[in-house]
TrEMBL record:
It comes from Brassica napus (Rape). Pfam families: Trehalose_PPase (PF02358). It catalyses: alpha,alpha-trehalose 6-phosphate + H2O = alpha,alpha-trehalose + phosphate. Pathway: Glycan biosynthesis; trehalose biosynthesis. InterPro entries: HAD-like_sf, HAD-SF_hydro_IIB, HAD_sf, OTSB-like, Trehalose_PPase. This is Trehalose 6-phosphate phosphatase. NCBIfam families: HAD-SF-IIB, T6PP. Belongs to the trehalose phosphatase family.
Length: 400
């Protein structure tokens, strides 16, 4: 008898299969992803009532072919659901791999076609540095409002998300920007964490993908003082997020490099230090938690999966909220500029595109589908762009 060994690290296929068996037996199924299928005529799956094996498991034996059929059926079944099914997971893994700038290309033919793709992309989304004068001409006489993502925009994407420090130089220029324009940092992280990185009081913070918005805390050049919390549309979700963080910490314990971050109103599972080979398995683990939490949804970012409340609130809504708070809701004379590198920033790019106001700048070294108007390659180019912005403001003030 070839018994499938027990493990909490499930592959997508086996997880789908476990749902199937759970349906058949009304019990939890724990199966391993260590290739139990290869080389055996029959497959035995152990089924236990609890994932922690407090009760002795029962065993089901299937002929190998039948097992594979069931597997296929279960996987199809999974794909048909609206949420992230196994098919979506593999396409997500592909897109995450492609968005990784360190990805090596193997053949020279690949790199030729890569170059063509890159050339046509940069024509569609020109460098915000090359287009600087054009952009600023459009902003002349209007109020620029700056929105900046944090990870991958102001700080490099590093292996350990707790060490995504901003450089001294970047902090100084963001401060200068904030002294010249209303400025907000819009991030998926918790406000506490991003504030600890940025250490500036002059700016607005929209943390947890905009679900936690705070104004400048000390008196600033706009004469406001101690505004503190402005908006928290998902407050009732805090205990639920805490619970899910604990569950995921337990579930991902056996996946080397996986990191769960509590962002207060949402949470992140970081893939940055996880071997690409097990990304799909980890994604499946993350997704499986949502079965018990229909009020939470899964979104993807750069080497990160995020779980957040299903409420209709994102970085785009946060941008609108902040413009409203600043009194620019109906103003023709405002130019919002949003700089970000991630899928979640697309919500803000889309809002700007739909408004026909201001513009989005995507930070990316590789061609990507985007609703931004311009591009910058990396945080050092963001730094340069912000410097030029401050210089431009000083110069135009001098002219007035
Ligand atoms: C399990 O049962 C539910 C409800 O009967 C069904 O919607 C779902 O598709 C089944 N899952 C699988 C993998 O068969
Ligand atoms: C850009 O906006 C369009 C229209 O809303 C949308 O269909 C598309 O998915 C967006 N692209 C990205 C990359 O988000
Ligand atoms: Mg980012």
């Amino acid at each position: 008898m070839n018994t499938v060994s027990l493990s909490l690290c499930l592959s997508p296929y086996l997880l789908s299969f476990s749902t199937l068996v759970r349906n058949m037996t009304n019990q939890n199924v724990i199966v391993s992803d260590r290739n139990p299928i290869l080389g055996s005529k029959t497959i035995t799956v152990s089924v236990s009532k609890s994932p922690l094996f407090s009760s002795p498991p029962t065993y089901f034996t299937f002929p190998r072919r039948k097992f594979l059929e069931l597997l296929e059926a279960a996987d199809k079944n999974n794909n048909n659901k609206n949420n992230l099914g196994a098919g979506k997971i593999s396409s997500w893994v592909d897109s995450m791999r492609d968005s990784s700038p360190t990805r090596l290309r193997s053949s020279s033919r690949d790199s030729d076609s890569d170059n063509d793709e890159k050339t046509s992309w940069i024509v569609r989304f020109p460098s915000a540095l090359n287009m600087f004068d054009k952009i600023m001409n459009a902003a002349k006489g209007k109020q620029i409002v700056m929105f900046l993502d944090y990870d991958g925009t102001l700080s490099p994407i590093v292996e350990d998300p707790d060490k995504a420090y901003i450089t001294h130089e970047m902090r100084e220029v963001v401060k200068d920007v904030a002294l010249n324009f209303p400025t907000a940092i819009v991030t998926g992280r918790s406000i506490d964490k991003v504030r600890a990185f940025v250490k500036l009081n002059e700016i607005y913070y929209a943390g947890s993908h905009g679900m936690d918005i705070e104004g400048p805390t000390n008196e600033n050049s706009y004469g406001e003082s101690n505004q503190g919390v402005l908006f928290q549309p998902a407050r009732e979700f805090v205990p639920m997020i805490e619970k899910v963080v604990k569950i995921l910490e337990k579930k991902t314990k056996c996946i080397p490099g996986a990191m769960v971050e509590n962002n207060k109103f949402c949470l992140s599972v970081h893939f940055r230090r996880v071997d690409e080979k097990i990304w799909a398995a980890l994604a499946e683990q993350v997704k499986s938690v949502l079965v018990d939490y229909p009020k939470l949804k899964l979104t993807q970012g750069r080497k990160v999966l995020e779980i957040r409340p299903t409420i209709k609130w994102d970085k785009g809504q946060a941008l609108n909220f902040l413009l409203r708070s600043l009194g620019f809701e109906h103003s023709e004379n405002v130019v919002p500029v949003y700089i970000g590198d991630d899928r979640t920033d697309e919500d803000a790019f889309k809002v700007l595109r739909e408004k026909g106001q201001g513009f989005g700048i995507l930070v990316s070294k590789v061609p990507k589908e985007t609703n931004a108007s311009y591009s910058l390659q990396d945080p050092s180019q963001v730094n340069e762009f912000l410097k030029r912005l401050v210089d431009w403001k000083r110069k135009t003030v001098g002219e007035e």
